[in-house]
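[audit] Reproducing an earlier prediction to check determinism. Same input, same settings, fresh worker. If the tokens differ from the archived copy the diff job will pick it up downstream; this log only records the rerun itself.
[audit] input (280 residues):
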Amino acid sequence: MPPNPTAGDGERRYNARLAVPHYQDIFDGWARASAAVRERARARLDIAYGPHTAERLDLFLPEGRPRGTLMYIHGGYWRSLDKSDASLVAPPFTAAGYAVAVVNYALCPAVDVETIVAQVRRAAAWLASHHAQWDAPPARLFACGHSAGGHLAAMLLATEPVVAAATCISALYDLRPLLDVPSVMDATRFTPRSAAALSPALWRPLTGTRLLTALGGDENPGFREQCDTIRLHWRDVHAGHIECPGHDHFSILDELTRADGAIATATLRLVQSFDLPRSP
């Protein structure tokens, strides 16, 4: 077998923090903006969706009856960040009439990624079965995630029939290349078997689901390879791709958190395509 030309090059291909040295300034900005959103929003905070202390979500509500519910899953390579850093994603969607559930989950290395996938699946099941509590219609649950959160959103499309569609931003779909990324392996302890088992690109998406992908023009090369992989393997459900020139792995979220952002606009177009006729 010929040698892998990318062996030993994992950090350059997948370490987004290495590529964006000022990432902490971006994270701090997310936290400040999210705190401001929570202060003024119609929100129900720290709702338990499961027994683990990390299994909590923040629910942001629109004026009037929601048209559906969007579940947002934060990134951080399964090892960092928190739902409190991600409230800033809610305003474009609540303004358009959707409830937004920002989901927390336990982090590596305290738990493994298999446990995190199970927690996110539990969150989706909880949202689907409790939609009447915020007067949202049934069968109108959607997912959106960034980076590792995009991986988790894609896993929902392969495992949870209650999730109709997902937007995956700068996401990971085949985890096997991460075996060559020491900064990720230190926390996740992936094995060849677990990396394959947790790769949505190696699963079949559920019938009727739809996937929207997004990627920044200045991403690490590994994330572009990941996007190419899922667009090939899930071509039957791939609903479109949003290319975001001038954005890196972190600044790309600007296109989700602005009402006129390319990702927010495309995601709203996707979820609105599932709308039921509204009562007069």
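[audit] rerun output stored. Observation attached for the diff report: Confidence is low (pLDDT under 50) at residues 1-7.
[audit] end
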